[in-house]
Amino acid sequence: MTHWSRFDATADRRLLKKLADGGESALAEVYDIYAERLYDYALLFTSDVHIARNIVHDALIDAARRSARMRDRRQLRPWLYAAVRRRGMAQRRDAWSAPEARPGDDDLLRLAHAALAALDRTHRDALSLALRHDIDGAALATTLGVTQRRARHRVERAGTRAETAAAAEIGGGEGAVPSAAELMRASPAVPPPDTLRDRVLHTSADPQLARYRSQIVSRGGRLITSGLPRQPDAPSQVARRYAVGSASLAGFLAVVAVGLNVIGGVSDVPDIGRPAPSWRTPPANPTADPSRTSGSDPGHGGHPVGLPTGGAGRNGTGGRAHSPSAHPTGRTPGAHPTRGGAVPPGRAQPSSPPLPGAGALTVRPGTIGLGGDKSAADITLTADGGPVTWTASSGSPAVTLSDSSGTVDPGRTARITVHLARNSLVQLPGRTTVTVSSGGAGHTVPVSWSISLLSH
Fold it and tell me: How many CB atoms lie within 10 A of CB 380?
């Protein structure tokens, strides 16, 4: 069982002042008070006594050089434990293993080893700090590099897991399950090697080891704003403040975007839950009568709107390909559909004869909405009447495509995945178009996205 005495609330301030003033006696006094505790704590990260000895040695040398930077002069104890934890957590893997059972071990010690073995090192060191080394409250949160609420929850979860592991070790036998505090205090304290004290004092005082001391300090990592060692598994305070500020900015921008949409009166974002329109290019009919009504037009009556597939452009003169955006009034046949996805009545646009063996390309859906949790969507291409060779392009670098060209066999489909690139924490709203071309005809699919935050 551990037999350490309780900490003196005024000792840290006095010891830190002596460390700041310098002198070998100050570090010797710190060693006599804390070395056994720190060595016991270091053994929770590794079963190698040589590594544990080096961790304590470096933490004390680092304390003599940098602990005076603390804002609160009563935090020497959390500083030392945080320095040991920083070096222990820097190990690439959890190198701790439960000690082998010995003939003289009692049942409580056996249960303690089983409980510790059931914990990962994050929960194992939190439980040890709280219940074995009597560090709690703000000091525990400071040592772990987290908030007090998170530190308390971590200890609670670790205690529950330890007691559950001890109960499983007991099995169906009789006897009460020991508490997490009893399990953590069951193991006897292991004293550090006798030579460690002389080594620490020699390293701190020898002028020829100044460069070695600087290397030890550099391996200790950076200090946080309060002056304590930053933990490798703790979130950066700067990143935390940046995330909070960005979330506030995102909320403000969302309000601005909503206001602009209200002022504009109409939003191009597709309605959720309504069927999206699609554009289809049927085989061209050179004898089609432009004056034919919508009832006899093959582009209506529940079918997608007809678009030309040949190289003819406006008025059949060639050059510019027909697209929905070419008729902003919505009255010209083949114009952009209405918000609800319904195709307005009109006449099919005459087209040039298709190339021999060329088919008709159908592009669905007619519009795509991204943003929020949705950062990708598919465009489906279907060929009728023959193979269709197509190319696709995006009108904005914010939207990328999985494929830019290909061929669709008749009766088969191809998919183009549209990705919304998220290169910043805040994604502002915007819109662009994806153009799919085949045989000189272009099919545009409007793509819009709402404001969103980049999640990790």
Answer: 14
Structural tokens at position 142: 């400071």
> pLDDT, tens digit, for every residue of 284-303?
454 444 444 444 444 444 44
Q: What is the DSSP string of 51-83?
A: HHHHHHHHHHHHHHHHGGG-SSTT-HHHHHHHH
What is the tens place of the pLDDT at every residue in 164-175? 999 988 875 556
Tell me the residue type at 118. Answer: A
Residue type, 201: L
For residue 84, which phi and psi values (nearest 5 degrees)? -65, -45
Tokens describing residue 294? 């919508």
Cis omega (within 30 of 0) for bond into 286: no
Local structure of 66: helix, strand or coil: helix
The burial of 194, by beta-carbon neighbours within 10 Å (0-12 exposed, 13-18 middle, 19 or more buried), is given as: exposed
The pLDDT tens digits of the residues spanning 323-366 come to: 444 444 444 444 444 444 444 443 433 434 445 556 788 888 88
Of 418, 417, 391, 422, the residue nearest 405 (C-alpha)? 391
Tell me the C-alpha distance between 178 and 162, whole Å: 10
* Inter-axis angle of helices 49-66 and 195-205, nearest 10: 40
Is the CB of residue 334 less than 8 Å from the CB of residue 348? Answer: yes
Q: For residue 246, give the nearest of 41, 424, 56, 108 by alpha carbon.
A: 424
> pLDDT value at position 262?
58
The alpha carbon of residue 263 and the mean position of all alpha carbons in its chain are separated, in whole angstroms, by: 36
110: CB partners within 8 A, 6+ apart: 101, 169
How many degrees, rounded to 5, is the angle at CA 13 between CA 10 and CA 18? 125
d(CA 377, CA 419): 7
Q: Give the H/E segment covering residue 112.
A: helix 107-117
d(CA 258, CA 280): 33
- Under a CB-based contact definition with an 8 Å cutoff, are residues 219 and 55 in contact? no
- Rounded CA separation 415/402 (Å): 9
**Could you tell me the pTM of the whole model?**
0.54
Look-up: residue for tokens 């709280």? 130
Q: Using the 8-state DSSP alphabet, how is residue 102 labeled?
A: -
Task: Quote the CA–CA distance of 286 and 166 in Å, as a whole number.
Answer: 85
